[in-house]
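Q: Please design a sequence for this.
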């Protein structure tokens, strides 16, 4: 019944700061943004009088790669909630990289909170192959992951 994943949405507290991070630090391409307001928006988000700024970024021009949707509720107090991997929710958004060691050093040089150094995993016996991965946080405390597949 469902089709492909159309986009992955993250609620952020400061759109300008988030766009800057996702563009300048992670290298995503800004696609555009829009403002949502009115009765339909209030019904969709279940918040009376809400105005929502929405921006789209992409890591790839490939059609099978869904864009990242950043959502900021305007006129709301800024609340930073740090996601935790062990609490039921969407745990992370994972991006593939060609050289995870170089990317890790890049994040560290930009003072990004990394939850570990890159770790090697071998799931060949399970049919998934080898990879390196680590988690890090965006400026909103949202957990993100990067992975490098090992041939």
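A: Design:
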């Amino acid at each position: 019944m469902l089709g492909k994943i159309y986009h992955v949405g993250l609620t952020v507290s400061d759109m300008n700061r988030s766009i800057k991070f996702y563009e300048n630090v992670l290298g995503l391409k800004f696609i555009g943004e829009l403002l949502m307001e009115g009765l339909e928006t209030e019904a969709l988000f279940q918040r009376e009088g809400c105005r929502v700024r929405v921006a789209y970024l992409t890591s790839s021009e490939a059609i099978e790669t869904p864009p990242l949707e950043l959502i900021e509720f305007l006129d709301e107090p800024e609340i930073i909630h740090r996601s935790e991997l062990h609490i039921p929710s969407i745990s992370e958004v994972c991006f593939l990289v060609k050289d995870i060691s170089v990317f890790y050093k890049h994040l560290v040089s930009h003072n990004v909170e990394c939850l570990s150094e890159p770790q090697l995993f071998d799931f060949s016996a399970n049919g998934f192959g080898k990879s390196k991965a680590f988690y890090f946080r965006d400026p909103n405390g949202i957990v993100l992951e990067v992975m490098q597949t090992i041939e």
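Q: Thanks. Anything notable?
A: Strands lie at 8-11, 29-37, 51-58, 68-74, 93-96, 119-123, 129-137, 143-150. The chain has three helices and eight strands.
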